[in-house]
Amino acid sequence: MLLRTEKLTKRYGSFTALDELTFSIAPGEVVGLLGPNGSGKTTALRLILGFLRPTSGKAFLGGHDCWSDSVAARRLVAYLPGELRLYENMNGRQLIHFLSHLRGQPITGEIDTLAKQFDIDLERPIANLSSGMKRKVALLQVLTPHAKLVIMDEPTNALDPTMRDQLLDQVMEAKNRGQTVLFSSHVMEEVQRVCDRVLILRRGALVHEQILSQLQAGRLVHVRFAGAIVDPPALPGLHERRRHGDLLTLEYTGPVPQLLGWLAELPVVELRMEPLGLSAVYYRYHGNPE
């Protein structure tokens, strides 16, 4: 495994920001980190990067302890933070050259190709750029090193829809090159588009791990009864999402005939099925937005 954590924990006094987080990521995998503000996503990323010292537990990157051997671990990482702090006394090209020099990696012609694709003028002073343009410059310095692990914290913030699509295409190209990507985002459409797997955090704890290919077989099932709602059976892969009046909404990842066999014996007046997306899984742990 390229990245693994073992009961990684961070406490501030009596407050637990991250609670015994354990997971691993293989080379070439794109993994999404999901959860609302305060769920522990950014804390987890900062611990992996060696910016914070864990209260207990460990994280390892390429076999290096992310805290005690943090310099060696960070050589394997390209990081895009959620909140940017760039050297505004430089222009885009100077910044990228400076950071590449720190890494010991030469700049190639790829930087100009990507700059043209992202519509960035690398000669403009960073102080004169909009927040969206600054984010594009930061994206270039993350994408060009071809690091073994790319960590992106809310990477599409301040990007317009066209640039967002181009960024997600770049994530897929990184995957095709064998790079590993850890991708934190609030936008589930983005996560579902590029990720192989997602980790859902809640109040600092890992509450669910989902392989996204499995969602293709899942369904969101809406059942309206003629009268009171009938409690669903204990079928594998069947979860109740919500009930309102005579309408029951279920999530189901099992064989459809088994579910229909149960419904056939009941006073059902309306039945509707739709694909089970990532949102349905996410809101199982973080509440229904409706």
Describe the structure.
The protein is an alpha/beta fold and 290 residues long. The chain has two domains: 3-212, 3-Layer(aba) Sandwich (Rossmann fold); 218-286, Alpha-Beta Plaits. The protein has nine helices and 14 strands. It has helices spanning 41-48, 70-74, 92-103, 110-117, 131-143, 161-176, 188-194, 256-263, 278-286, and strands spanning 3-12, 15-25, 30-34, 56-61, 64-65, 77-80, 149-153, 180-184, 197-202, 205-211, 219-225, 238-244, 247-252, 268-275. Helix 3 (92-103) runs parallel beside helix 5. The longest helix has 16 residues, at 161-176. The chain starts with a strand and ends with a helix.
What's the structural blueprint in terms of helices and strands?
Layout: E1 3-12, E2 15-25, E3 30-34, H1 41-48, E4 56-61, E5 64-65, H2 70-74, E6 77-80, H3 92-103, H4 110-117, H5 131-143, E7 149-153, H6 161-176, E8 180-184, H7 188-194, E9 197-202, E10 205-211, E11 219-225, E12 238-244, E13 247-252, H8 256-263, E14 268-275, H9 278-286
Parallel strand pairs: 3-8, 3-9, 6-7, 7-8
Antiparallel strand pairs: 1-2, 1-4, 4-5, 9-10, 11-13, 11-14, 12-13
